[in-house]
Design brief:
156 residues, alpha+beta, six-stranded antiparallel beta sheet, elongated
Length: 156
C-alpha cells in the first residue's frame, strides 16, 4: 500500500471521531514516521482574544502525534492496542485565528520505527514519546508538544 492510500485510510478512521469532526482537522501528509495535519480555525475554535483555543491546539497536536505513532505500523494494527498515555504542550506564541491555518508536524526516525516494529513482533509493550511542532500559515512556531503513545499486544 502506498503512503497516500495509507494516509487516506488513517485519516478516514480519524474522521469518524467526534472531536475531529468538530475541529475539522484534516490530514495533509502521512508516511512511515511522519504525519502532518492542519486546522483552519472557525469562530467556535477561538477564545476571547481571537486566538485558537489552547484545548484545540492540544487536540491538533495529539492527533498529529498519534497518527505518527501508527504511521510505520499500519499493517500491524490488528494485533496492536494503541492509546495516548500522556501529553504536554508548550504554547510558544499566540495562535491568532487570522494566522491560520495551523499545521501540526510530527516525525519519528526510521530507526525508531524499526525498533517499534521489532517490539510489536516480539509482543513487547512499548511506551514511545512522539514530538510535535505547530506552526501558523507564516511558518511561525506556535507550540511544541510531546505525547507518550502506549502500544501493547491485543488480548486474544
Amino acid at each position: 500500500m502506498d503512503n497516500a492510500t495509507m494516509g487516506e485510510l488513517v485519516m478516514a478512521g480519524f474522521q469518524k471521531l467526534g472531536f475531529i469532526q468538530y475541529t475539522g482537522i484534516e490530514g495533509v501528509e502521512f508516511r512511515a514516521g511522519y504525519n502532518l495535519v492542519r486546522i483552519a480555525p472557525r469562530p467556535e475554535h477561538l477564545n476571547h482574544n481571537g486566538d485558537l483555543h489552547a484545548a484545540v491546539l492540544f487536540g491538533l497536536a495529539e492527533t498529529a502525534a498519534m497518527g505518527t505513532s501508527i504511521s510505520g505500523i499500519v499493517d500491524l494494527m490488528a494485533e496492536t492496542f494503541i492509546v495516548a498515555k500522556d501529553g504536554r504542550i508548550e504554547y510558544r506564541a499566540r495562535a491568532k485565528g487570522t494566522a491560520g491555518p495551523f499545521l501540526a508536524t510530527s516525525e519519528l526516525s526510521a530507526d525508531t520505527i524499526d525498533r517499534v516494529r521489532a517490539d510489536i513482533a516480539a509482543r513487547t509493550p512499548i511506551e514511545l514519546e512522539v514530538p510535535v511542532r505547530i506552526t501558523d500559515s507564516a511558518e511561525k512556531l506556535v507550540a511544541t508538544a510531546a505525547f507518550t503513545a502506549v502500544m501493547r499486544p491485543r488480548r486474544a
